[in-house]
Amino acid sequence: MAAGRCLKSANNAAVQGVVAVSEAQQIEKIRKHAADVGVLRDKLRYWDYTDVLTTHASLEQVNESINALNLVPQGFVTSKG
User: Which residues on neighbouring strands pair with residue 48, listed in sequence order?
Assistant: First the structure.
């Protein structure tokens, strides 16, 4: 997200947090930069990209498991892929 849009979003009262996703070294650089920007310092959250990938895989597995129960008629199941 571009810095300007990030700051604009962070100023919105409905926004509970802004998430920076990257690898550990880049996250540390972002954290240091954001320390001087009050609105970012207060709302910025950090998420290592490897955890994002693990979480995505886990959610995908959960979705497949739930779909395998055939609780939803075929016409209602949508698949993105």
Answer: 22
Which residue type does 58 have?
S
- Alpha-carbon distance 47 to 6, whole Å? 16
| pLDDT tens by residue, 30-80 | 999 999 988 788 889 999 999 999 999 999 999 999 999 998 877 775 666
> For the chain, how many structural domains are there in total?
1
In a domain, 52, yes or no: yes
Tokens matching residue 58: 């886990």
Task: Give pTM, 2 decimals.
Answer: 0.68
Phi-psi group of 27: left, alpha or beta (phi > 0 → left; psi -120 to 50 → alpha; rest → beta): alpha
Q: Is the dihedral of CA 42, 16, 3, 28 positive or negative?
A: positive
Q: Where are the alpha helices (DSSP H) in 1-81?
A: 3-10, 24-34, 38-43, 49-68
Task: Write out the residue range of the structural domain in which residue 32 sits.
Answer: 18-69
